[in-house]
Automatic annotation (TrEMBL):
EC number per UniProt: 2.7.4.3
UniProt keyword list: ATP-binding, Cytoplasm, Kinase, Metal-binding, Nucleotide biosynthesis, Nucleotide-binding, Transferase, Zinc
UniProt-annotated stretches for the region NMP: 30-59
Top-rank taxon: Bacteria
Any one GO biological process: AMP salvage
Quaternary structure and interacting proteins, as annotated: Monomer.
Comment text on domains: Consists of three domains, a large central CORE domain and two small peripheral domains, NMPbind and LID, which undergo movements during catalysis. The LID domain closes over the site of phosphoryl transfer upon ATP binding. Assembling and dissambling the active center during each catalytic cycle provides an effective means to prevent ATP hydrolysis. Some bacteria have evolved a zinc-coordinating structure that stabilizes the LID domain.
InterPro entries: Adenyl_kin_sub, Adenylat/UMP-CMP_kin, Adenylat_kinase_CS, Adenylate_kinase_lid-dom, P-loop_NTPase
Protein known as: Adenylate kinase
Organism: Spiroplasma chinense
UniProt KW Transferase keyword: yes
Length: 211
C-alpha cells in the first residue's frame, strides 16, 4: 500500500510518518528531508533547492519530481509520501511515475488542523539534527533540554521555521497544495486533528486505513 500524508506545514505529517513506519512497516519518503540532506551534503540539487526553501517557497516541480523519480527506482511499495506531492502537477507526475512499476497511490490521509494551531506549533518546533524527530519547546519537550530523547542529537530550529517564513509557507500551502484535497477526492480520508494528541491522530489514521 502506498499512501500520501497531506496537510499544512505543522499538521504533524512527519510525526505520524515516523510512527506509521515504526508500527506499520511503511517507508517514509519526505521530500523536505531529502532536500535538507542534499543541502547538508552541498550537492548541486541542494544548492538549487536551498534558495527556495529559505524563503518558504516551493522548489520547482521539475527538480522535485526528478528527485522523487530517482528514489522510486529503488523503492516503490509500502511508501508514505510526506510533503509530496505539493502541487497538482506533481500529483499527476507521481501517478505516471508509479505506473511504470504498476503501482498506485491507494489512500490519501488529510490531516486537518486550524491555522492558528499550525502557527503556534511551527514557531515552537525544534528538530533533531540526526534523526529529524520533532519536539516543541512548550508542548512536547525532550527529557533533557536541547537533546533528542532517541539518539542524543542536538535539537535545532529549522531556518524556515521563523514567523515571517511560516506565514509565507502557509500561504503557499493554501494556494498550491490545498487544491490536492479535491484532486484526491476519491482516495481521501480526512482526519480532524484539532485538540487531539499525536496518539489519537495515529489511531484515527490506522482505523481509517483499515491496517
Ligand atoms: P517540509 O520539510 O516538508 O516542510 O519541506 C520543507 C521545504 O522543502 C518546503 O517549504 C519547500 O521549500 C521544500 N519542499 C519539500 N517538499 C516539496 C515539494 N513536494 N515541492 C516543492 N518544494 C518542496
Amino acid at each position: 500500500m502506498n499512501i500520501i500524508l497531506l496537510g499544512a506545514p505543522g499538521s504533524g505529517k512527519g510525526t505520524q510518518s515516523e510512527v506509521l513506519c515504526e508500527k506499520k512497516s511503511f517507508t517514509q519518503l519526505s521530500t523536505g528531508d531529502l532536500f535538507r540532506n542534499n543541502i547538508a551534503n552541498k550537492t548541486p540539487l541542494g544548492l538549487e533547492a536551498q534558495g527556495y526553501m529559505n524563503q518558504g517557497l516551493y522548489v520547482p516541480d521539475d527538480v522535485t519530481n526528478k528527485m522523487v523519480g530517482d528514489y522510486l527506482e529503488s523503492n516503490h511499495e509500502g511508501l508514505i509520501f510526506d510533503g509530496y506531492p505539493r502541487t497538482v502537477d506533481q500529483a499527476k507526475e507521481l501517478d505516471l511515475m508509479l505506473a511504470k512499476y504498476d503501482k498506485v497511490i491507494d489512500k490519501v490521509v488529510y490531516i486537518d488542523l486550524d491555522d492558528s494551531v499550525l502557527m503556534s506549533r511551527l514557531t515552537g518546533r525544534v528538530v533533531c539534527e540526526i534523526c529529524k524527530r520533532s519536539y516543541h519547546v512548550v508542548t512536547r519537550k525532550p527529557a533533557v533540554e536541547g537533546i533528542c530523547d532517541f539518539d542524543g542529537g542536538k535539537l535545532v530550529t529549522r531556518p524556515d521555521d521563523q514567523e515571517d517564513k511560516i506565514k509565507t509557507r502557509l500561504e503557499v500551502y493554501n494556494n498550491q497544495t490545498a487544491p490536492l484535497i479535491s484532486f484526491y477526492e476519491d482516495k481521501l480520508v480526512k482526519i480532524p486533528s484539532d485538540g487531539k494528541t499525536p496518539q489519537e491522530v495515529f489511531e484515527l489514521i490506522v482505523e481509517s486505513l483499515g491496517i
